[in-house]
Design goal:
The protein has a domain at about 50-175. The chain contains seven helices and four strands; from the N terminus they run E-E-H-H-H-H-H-H-H-E-E. It has helices at about 25-30, 35-55, 60, 70-85, 100-115, 120-125, 125-140, and strands at about 10, 15, 140-145, 170-175. A hairpin with a 2-residue loop joins strand 1 and strand 2.
Length: about 180
Amino acid sequence: MGETERGGARRGSKRAPYDVFWAAPESRAVWAELPEPVLAEIARLDAERLELERSRVAPQLREKITAPVYSVADRFASWERVVCRMEPGWSSEDFYPVSAYDNDLDSRDTLDDLVQVLPTEAREGALGRLLARLDARFRAASVPDPELTLRPWVRPTKEKPESELGEWWKRKPVREPWD
């Protein structure tokens, strides 16, 4: 993937900040319209996540981490990108390993938890509708996988019985994004 696709385009001699919504236009549009109370709650969740991520690195690196890698916005954008990769017509030369797929499915798991703690206006409003649309697109671009044929390569990181896993763990892409 080129730098401009990821939001790392160069301007003069300085690198532009990372754009979490690269290749996720629907998520970007929803984010631009979120009301302030929802954005404040998302900021609180992101601050908690930042502290967790910082706690996992050496002390000399902690202060250098200023934003969470797995922010709420990043999780929505990641889910949108994987859905796009699975849909007909996606053409990209970026590398997408199967290990990235299970990471994206893990992020989808976390979206359920995150959306539940957001204010009702987010859960039932724009973010809830965005998640429902992305999930519908995922279902349209995948088929049931009762034999769990991807499980040797794609495994959830959370210890849960198979019956409690989200539907995304029990489906496989019609068009594998890692091909």
